[in-house]
Amino acid sequence: MSMPSVQIATTSIGEKQPPFVIAEMSGNHNQSLDRALAIVDAAADAGAHAIKLQTYTADTMTLDVDRDEFKILDPESLWFGRRLHELYQEAATPWDWHQAIFDHAKKRGIIAFSSPFDETAVDFLETLDAPAYKIASFELTDLPLIAKTAATGKPLIMSTGMATLAEIHQAVECAREHGSGELVLLKCTSNYPATPESTNLHTIPHLRDSFGTQVGLSDHTGGIGAAVAAVALGATVIEKHFTLRRADGGVDSAFSLEPEELNSLVVETERAWQALGEIRYGSDGPQQKSLMFRRSIFISEDVEEGESVGPHCLRIVRPGHGLTPKDWVLVCGRTAKRKLTRGEPTNWEMFV
């Protein structure tokens, strides 16, 4: 089912275009502006279409209090034992870096935009003329934030990790009621990292058909396999966390792609998109040249004029210049109209 395309800056997102690949910087700058700019360069060199930031401060995200409610207590979490306020301080992209990052991205020919996490972040990003906005999975139920962001009239990408169908419906209705005409919904599993088994890519076409939007995958699994499979199921946007080297550490490094992997993601998702094509059978196009390599019936032993042509002097072999194998029973027992030579492709004119 074809859905309305979405325009972000000069790039169109839709079924007729290669997948729109977003490199999520998140906290992988490790509190270095030089590293942040190097990540922009690496994303551009890898062929990504966009670099995405996250715009918040620790104080707009949470409270600076030392209570268990504000700590990560899941022993399986990458951030086990960390206080939320401390973690967000480490991961936050300083607001006074945004202009430099946006300008550098423009210079490198890559789109820069961000996820705002509160209304002040939307106001700030509007001063930078952000071309689009992303609502993170954890903010999908923050309808006031969605309303504020949608009111800018910019394209809106929303991750749906953890959300029920009813919660997605509320978010989509809120966005549309407040002025967002161009929406993209991303399937997302809000585990860091996520497992392939928890990714449930079959949700993608259902998401598209349920809400009439472009759809994609915000992918926290390792590698690029899930993203390539998502394209086969209709994803037109792929978002992956991105870093220069996982060995450099950082809050998101463990589930982030490195530059060569990001380049593979761009190349392989485009190949997957190209391979979708349309419903088609037969041998039109490039396959026409391959028809000659089908099997057909050839004369395998010399036959004199007037002799019966039996199975002993016929073979079904490649190439396909003779009569087709389905004609075998019609050829066997025919009489040679002339002398037939080993290696000749059969045709009806050589038989009585």
Automatic annotation (TrEMBL):
Coiled coil: none
Biological source species: Allorhodopirellula heiligendammensis
Domain AFP-like, chain residue ranges per copy: 296-352
Enzymatic class: transferase
Matching PROSITE patterns: AFP_LIKE
GO biological process, one term: carbohydrate biosynthetic process
Alphabetically ordered keywords of this record: Transferase
Upper taxonomic lineage: Bacteria, Pseudomonadati, Planctomycetota, Planctomycetia, Pirellulales
Entries under PANTHER family matching the protein: N-ACETYLNEURAMINATE SYNTHASE (PTHR42966), PSEUDAMINIC ACID SYNTHASE (PTHR42966:SF2)
Record protein name field: Pseudaminic acid synthase
EC number: 2.5.1.97
Gene Ontology MF term list: N-acylneuraminate-9-phosphate synthase activity
